[in-house]
Design goal:
The complex is a heterodimer of chains A (165) and B (442).
Chain A lengths: L1 H17 L5 E7 L2 E10 L10 E7 L10 E4 L42 H13 L9 H9 L1 H15 L3
Antiparallel strand pairs in A: 1-2, 2-3, 3-4
Chain B lengths: L16 H34 L5 H14 L1 E6 L10 E4 L6 H8 L4 E3 L5 H6 L2 E3 L6 H14 L4 E3 L11 E2 L12 E10 L14 H10 L3 E7 L3 E2 L6 H16 L2 E2 L4 H13 L2 H4 L28 H12 L5 H11 L2 H10 L41 H4 L21 H30 L1
Parallel strand pairs in B: 1-8, 2-5, 2-7, 3-4, 6-10
Antiparallel strand pairs in B: 7-8, 7-9
Helix pairs in contact in B: 1-2, 1-6, 10-11, 10-12, 11-12
The chains are: A alpha+beta (165), B alpha/beta (442).
Organism (chain A): Strongylocentrotus purpuratus
Keywords (chain A): ATP-binding, Nucleotide-binding, Transferase, Ubl conjugation pathway
EC number (chain A): 2.3.2.23
């Protein structure tokens, strides 16, 4: 099982190396363990996270791609869909079986035809458009709804921090 | 007691061998009938488009014409229909359910498919913005309910079943709209020649042509009393309650399977030789996919060759690689591992999808690329996963931030170096741009 996971990860790594999406770099932290990756994500243009470079880690299960990886932001974040410890709450990271929000979104659930690239692109979309309905960070959700200005200020500060400036 | 997913759908168009003999005898007649009906159908379609919905004789006229086309509709328990209830939910047994129910109760079917606008209109669906996310869609439907007298018709199962064993799990949107819903049950039968109206893996057009071919199709549409959501129920509980009521009425079992499970089941059948099918427990989520299978190909194609199996194994690992390339390589290597190695090594073999613009995240074929699974499933997208709405936000900036390596190094060390370099370059570039920008602002 791990063999096919490795092959698949290798294939995705190659794809992401030779033809990465805009503002994304991803790969194994250390090739001795192919199941732990680090990805750099650039905050999408025209949003409050614009310009930031956020560090995330991806941990793959040995039966990948049957099961999705776990993803966590290592850079400090403040976002309605990111938990305080950096875990990301996004439908593509959930297998269709576990269903916290009602099954209609199963089209965006994890399935083996999804990929690291798609996860990272989804996360970028999530940065651009927080979904304040499924609040992983209640404070951030509330602020996003009620005090957008303040939210933008905090995000701007995080962008600066992410670049260590 | 538990219904297995395999029992919910028809696997073959023909019911039994007796039907096959009858079909052979009937075939010439059916063919003539189908051609005639095709032309009559065209006229019916035009009439249906021209006549406004409110004209009273429209229904009578259309019903007569539908009978000519072979659709016989028996409505029953019409006294239960409450005009004030704006949401009708029905089970889904054929591609024309909404047309048939529309004959009895002129209604609006919100489009939850991603169809081209013409097809959308021709099939009688109304676009209510399902592609823009669940909230937009629900608001649009709610608005419609308030301002319009025509009810909304929903098929909460989201996919067709054979109507013989069980009902799929209901999606909740129709139950979140208003407090009252009017359930309707639809059963379909084809006397004389028992051809199934829905078959796994069949396309819309195939289903429609068979409708014209068979002598006639009988629809029994039964109206059930209005169901009211209580204060203690949420949409999900309410949907399950209604599913139970409809299932009892039809003597079916409500199942926990969703339309997505059906899509997955169809896919699974596509990669399994038929003889294994009966022994396989369908609940086990088998996740082997053959994403690049062309949509027209029947998922029931039997007798898989070893080569096909190997191609599929390679595709599982590398869904992006076109089938013909894998096939070509497998023919020389005859080994899954060797081919994977070759494709990884050989740059030119991979058509790095240049057309695959970053941000659109088309990626490998989506799991819903087969036509029969396309409808309904694509529905209600959460904002983060929604490609169409979010991709606009991800338009690449003029100062491109793409950090691609020229090549994928063959040694681990080489790759690590390249990765570190690119990370540093991305960060440096981001810092530079940030400082430039803040200078401009100040």
């Amino acid at each position: 099982m791990a063999g096919s996971a490795l092959k698949r990860l290798m294939a995705e790594y190659k794809q992401l190396t030779v033809n990465p999406p805009e503002g994304i770099i991803a790969g194994p932290v250390n090739e001795e363990n192919f199941f732990e990756w680090e990805a750099l994500i650039t905050g999408p243009e025209g949003t409050c996270f614009e310009g930031g470079v956020f560090q995330t880690e991806l941990k793959f299960p040995t039966d990948y791609p049957l099961n999705p990886p776990k993803m966590r932001f290592k850079t400090e974040m403040f976002h309605p869909n990111i938990y305080a410890d950096g875990r990301v709450c996004i439908s593509i990271l959930h297998a269709p079986g576990d269903d916290p929000m009602g099954y209609e979104s199963s089209a965006e659930r994890w399935s083996p035809v999804q990929s690291v690239e798609k996860i990272l692109l989804s996360v970028i979309s999530m940065l651009a458009e927080p979904n304040d309905e499924s609040g992983a960070n209640v404070d951030a959700s509330k602020m996003w709804r009620d005090d957008r200005e303040k939210f933008y200020r905090i995000a701007g500060e995080l962008v600066r921090k992410s670049l260590s400036l | 007691m538990a219904v297995e997913i395999a029992q919910l759908f028809s696997h073959r168009r023909l019911g039994d061998s007796k039907t096959a003999v009858l079909l052979a005898l009937y075939f010439p007649i059916g063919l003539i009938l189908a051609v005639l009906r095709l032309f009559i159908g065209l006229h019916v379609f035009i009439i249906a488009c021209i006549l406004p919905v409110q004209v009273p004789f429209r229904r009578v006229l259309l019903r007569t014409l539908y009978t000519v086309l072979g659709f016989i509709v028996y409505p029953s328990n019409l006294q239960h229909r409450n005009q004030n209830v704006k949401v009708i939910v029905a089970n889904h047994v054929s591609v024309l359910d909404h047309v048939i129910i529309g004959l009895i109760f002129p209604s609006v079917v919100p489009n939850v498919w991603s169809l081209p606008p013409f097809l959308n209109w021709a099939l009688g669906y109304t676009n209510m913005g399902a592609s823009q996310g669940r909230q937009v869609f629900l608001d649009a439907v709610r608005k419609h309910c308030q301002h319009n007298t025509r009810p909304v018709l929903a098929f909460p199962e989201g996919a067709m079943t054979n109507g013989k064993a069980g009902l799929l799990k209901f999606s909740t949107w129709a139950f979140a709209l208003e407090r009252d819903v009017q359930p309707i049950t639809v059963t379909i039968s084809r006397p004389l020649i028992n051809m199934k109206a829905e078959v796994l893996g069949s396309s819309l057009w195939q289903d429609l042509l068979w409708f014209l071919f068979v002598p006639f199709t009988v629809y029994r549409v039964k109206v059930l009393p209005v169901e009211k959501r209580s204060d203690f129920e949420n949409a999900d509980e309410f949907s399950r309650g209604v599913q139970q009521i409809m299932a009892n009425e039809m003597r079916l079992t409500p199942t926990p399977f969703t339309s997505a499970d059906k899509a997955e089941y169809v896919k699974k059948l596509g990669v399994q030789p038929p003889r294994e099918r009966s022994t396989q427990r369908p609940q086990v989520r088998q996740t082997t996919n053959a994403p690049s299978r062309s949509s027209g190909e029947s998922p029931r194609s039997s007798g898989e060759s070893p080569l096909d199996r190997m191609i599929k194994q390679v595709q599982e690992v590398m869904p992006n690689i076109p089938r013909h390339i894998i096939k070509h390589d497998l023919e020389t290597t005859n080994s899954v591992d060797a081919t994977i190695f070759n494709i990884l090594e050989n740059e030119t073999a991979i058509p790095i999808p240049a057309e695959e613009v970053p941000g659109t995240s088309t990626g490998p074929a989506t799991p819903l690329s087969t036509p029969q699974s396309l409808p309904h499933n694509t529905f209600c997208v959460t904002s983060q996963g929604n490609d169409s709405s979010s991709s606009t936000l991800l338009t690449p900036s003029p100062a491109s931030t793409k950090f691609a390596a020229d090549k994928f190094g063959s040694s681990s060390k080489e790759r690590q170096m390249s990765l570190q370099d690119r990370k540093a370059a991305l960060l440096a570039n981001a810092r530079k741009r940030f400082t430039e920008k803040s200078q401009v602002e100040n």
